[in-house]
From TrEMBL:
<keyword id="KW-0443">Lipid metabolism</keyword>
<keyword id="KW-0007">Acetylation</keyword>
<feature type="domain" description="Thioesterase">
    <location>
        <begin position="54"/>
        <end position="129"/>
    </location>
</feature>
<dbReference type="GO" id="GO:0006629">
    <property type="term" value="P:lipid metabolic process"/>
</dbReference>
<keyword id="KW-0496">Mitochondrion</keyword>
<comment type="subunit">
    <text>Homotetramer. Interacts with PCTP.</text>
</comment>
<dbReference type="GO" id="GO:0005634">
    <property type="term" value="C:nucleus"/>
</dbReference>
<dbReference type="GO" id="GO:0047617">
    <property type="term" value="F:fatty acyl-CoA hydrolase activity"/>
</dbReference>
<dbReference type="InterPro" id="IPR006683">
    <property type="entry name" value="Thioestr_dom"/>
</dbReference>
<keyword id="KW-0539">Nucleus</keyword>
<comment type="function">
    <text>Catalyzes the hydrolysis of acyl-CoAs into free fatty acids and coenzyme A (CoASH), regulating their respective intracellular levels. Has acyl-CoA thioesterase activity towards medium (C12) and long-chain (C18) fatty acyl-CoA substrates. Can also hydrolyze 3-hydroxyphenylacetyl-CoA and 3,4-dihydroxyphenylacetyl-CoA (in vitro). May play a role in controlling adaptive thermogenesis.</text>
</comment>
<protein>
    <recommendedName>
        <fullName>Acyl-coenzyme A thioesterase 13</fullName>
    </recommendedName>
</protein>
<keyword id="KW-0378">Hydrolase</keyword>
<keyword id="KW-0963">Cytoplasm</keyword>
<comment type="similarity">
    <text>Belongs to the thioesterase PaaI family.</text>
</comment>
<dbReference type="GO" id="GO:0005829">
    <property type="term" value="C:cytosol"/>
</dbReference>
<dbReference type="GO" id="GO:0005739">
    <property type="term" value="C:mitochondrion"/>
</dbReference>
Length: 158
């Protein structure tokens, strides 16, 4: 699948997933900026719904977005394999306040037969890293995104 086709497809998949009624809807205001094999970038303006009681970006929201984006890096960097988390690590260095823009870059570091290793960096508008996450996922079940989403029809829509 060509990189531009892959980007169009995964932007459509993102839209479908975030418009549902399940947990994924918390990402509706996250803008998927770029998708390439094994890499993706998103941006978000922190709003009240993303914040904790101190008015800063909620750690749980950040961790969930790292999970989502690193999974997307696996989908685009492999043959579309889905996985489940086996290890997740997160470090928070600086807060982002309501109204501030943040960006996240996620990358597939390595995918083997059964495990995939990923990382994600969260940046503020000045380009400072404010959080970092690493995730290892089990991808050996042979389940693929294509088993759940008709990618060909999505490509026609984009």
């Amino acid at each position: 699948m060509a990189a531009s086709s892959s980007a169009a497809i995964f932007k459509q998949v993102w839209k479908i997933l975030t418009q549902g009624k399940n947990f994924d809807r918390i990402f509706q205001k996250v803008n998927l900026v770029s998708v390439s094999p094994g890499r993706c970038r998103c941006e978000l303006t922190v709003e009240e719904e993303h914040a904790n009681g101190q008015g800063t970006l909620h750690g749980g929201f950040t961790m969930s977005l790292v999970d989502y984006m690193t999974t997307l890096s696996i989908l685009t960097g492999t043959d579309g394999r889905l996985g489940v988390s086996v290890q997740f690590n997160m470090s928070f260095m600086q807060a982002a306040k309501i109204g501030e823009k943040v960006a996240m870059e996620a990358e597939l570091i390595k995918a083997g037969k059964s495990l995939a290793f990923t990382k994600a960096d969260v940046f503020n508008a000045k380009g400072d890293i404010i959080a970092q996450g690493q995730q290892t996922m089990f991808i050996g079940s042979n389940k693929k995104v294509q088993d759940f989403v008709d990618l060909k029809s999505l490509l026609k829509e984009s």
